[in-house]
UniProtKB/TrEMBL annotation:
Organism in which the protein naturally occurs: Antarcticimicrobium luteum
Keywords: Lyase, NADP, Nodulation
Family matches, as InterPro entries: GDP_Man_deHydtase (IPR006368), NAD(P)-bd_dom (IPR016040), NAD(P)-bd_dom_sf (IPR036291)
Protein EC: 4.2.1.47
Listed name of the protein: GDP-mannose 4,6-dehydratase
Coiled coil feature spans: none
Residues spanning the signal sequence: none
Entry annotated with the keyword Lyase: yes
Alphabetical list of CDD domains matching this protein: GDP_MD_SDR_e
Enzymatic reactions: GDP-alpha-D-mannose = GDP-4-dehydro-alpha-D-rhamnose + H2O
GO biological-process terms attached to the record: 'de novo' GDP-L-fucose biosynthetic process
Length: 373
């Protein structure tokens, strides 16, 4: 029997890798996408299957996590074996600007799905994965963080995700639903949204190297994170739903680096030697030397990075470091891609895009570059 999965957030970073992974495993994959005024399926266009073909195994449904009747209808039509709730307003800084919306999508969205499962009598047949997050630990009570470390969320996003975490546990305990939380630490890839810190750095520096931009404005570059690769992490999301009994797992690499280190790695990939000068909001990064042919627009002495307090958060999560021992012991999971290798992959992809944009610009075809931050 072909297994059926339903993915909320299929158009996002993780959703796209998970859809690929499940299609390769032979699943019929259903995804919920939001109606937008522009196409929003770029991350999954390469796996598109024509719905007119009767054998299509990838199907998209219009929907939204704020709309329970829509979610209930889709669940009743698809009757999935597995639901992966990856949809979210996932940007921590944005959650301070839109706290109520973030709660509606990230907290209530999880409840709406679980209630739909219960309402439709799918408790014994549909397994549920909740995209929980290391942001739950916030102001950390111990290092490294494990499944038993107390939570202290530090943003409207994290507080909303805390509700989703507990409602998932509650529906497991109250109704016997096979429901799991993956407490995932930061994971990135060339498909990472452009405004998260890693991608902002790799894309920003690649554009500067090619003369498409001049300076990168950053917030707290001393923040410490445990960064993994999204490909490794979606494999784990599936593994969690294949166990005999549902459980919650920390997914992390167990290694920690600063944003500053990630900037240095990215610059290094472009042949740029950087020197940080100054302190606090006056800190800058200056080009010391350039080697190779990846950064033709730069000269020693150029300032390529400045601090902009606009990117400081009202409450910051300074440090996160996960301990994935439980996932390793119970599921045999090991991350395969290191943070530095992932950085190299992201820079290579962004450099290729920047070089293409440079060629177009040089021939008078430059399109306006999106610089949303
Ligand atoms: P992205 O921001 O890349 O993707 C989020 C997805 O959710 C997109 O498909 C987006 O649609 C969709 N979405 C947003 N709002 C709604 C809504 N109201 N209704 C339905 N769908 C919606 O996130 P990631 O792929 O990086 O993360 C996946 C999940 O994992 C998220 O829940 C995130 O909070 C969580 N997480 C992520 C971590 C990470 O480091 N990446 C770590 C821990 C947890 P659209 O494309 O239209 O915007
Ligand atoms: P995070 O990721 O908040 O950890 O949430 P993000 O990449 O946005 O920030 C990481 C750290 O970098 C600091 N920082 C900046 N961040 C951004 N976005 N832009 C900047 O200019 C900047 N300068 C410094 C931040 O202050 C922070 O400390 C991500 C999301 O994917 C969540 O959905 C997920 O739950 C967590 O990871 C785990």
């Amino acid at each position: 029997m072909t297994k059926r999965a339903l993915i909320t957030g299929i158009t996002g970073q993780d959703g796209s890798y998970l859809a690929e992974f499940l299609l390769e495993k032979g699943y019929e994959v259903h995804g919920i996408k939001r109606r937008a005024s522009l196409f929003n399926t770029q991350r999954i266009d390469h796996i598109f299957q024509d719905p007119h073909e009767s054998h299509a195994r990838l199907r998209l449904h219009y929907g939204d996590l704020t709309d329970s009747s829509n979610l209930t209808r889709i669940l009743s039509e698809v009757r999935p074996d597995e639901v992966y709730n990856l949809g979210a307003q996932s940007h921590v800084a944005v959650s301070f600007e839109a706290p109520e919306y973030t709660a509606d999508v990230d907290a209530m969205g999880a409840l709406r799905l679980l209630e739909a499962i219960r309402f439709l009598g799918l408790e014994k047949t549909t397994r549920f994965y909740q995209a929980s997050t290391s942001e739950l630990y916030g102001k950390v009570a111990e290092t490294p963080q494990t499944e038993t470390t107390p939570f202290h969320p530090r943003s409207p996003y994290a507080v909303a995700k805390m509700y989703a975490y507990w409602i998932t546990v509650n529906y497991r305990e109250a109704y016997g639903i096979y429901a799991c939380n993956g407490i995932l630490f930061n994971h990135e890839s060339p498909r990472r949204g452009e405004t998260f810190v890693t991608r902002k750095i790799t894309r920003g520096l690649a554009n500067i190297a090619q003369g498409l931009d001049s300076c990168l404005y950053m917030g707290n570059i001393d923040a410490l994170r445990d960064w993994g690769h999204a490909k490794d992490y979606v494999r784990m999301q599936w593994m969690m739903l294949q166990q005999e009994a549902p459980d919650d797992f920390v997914i992390a690499t167990g290694k920690q680096y600063s944003v500053r280190q990630f900037i240095q790695w990215s610059a290094g990939e472009l042949g740029i030697a950087l020197r940080f000068e100054g302190d606090g909001v006056d800190e800058i990064a200056v080009v010391e030397a350039v080697s190779g042919d990846k950064a033709p627009a730069l000269r020693p002495g150029d300032v390529v990075l400045r601090i902009d307090p606009r990117y400081f958060r009202p409450a910051e999560v300074e440090t996160l470091l996960g301990d994935p021992s439980k996932a390793r012991a119970k599921l045999g999971w090991e991350p395969e891609i290191t943070a530095q290798a992932m950085c190299a992959e992201m820079v290579a992809a962004d450099l290729e895009a920047a070089r293409r944009a440079r060629i177009l610009a040089d021939h008078g075809y430059s399109a306006p570059m999106s610089r949303e931050d």
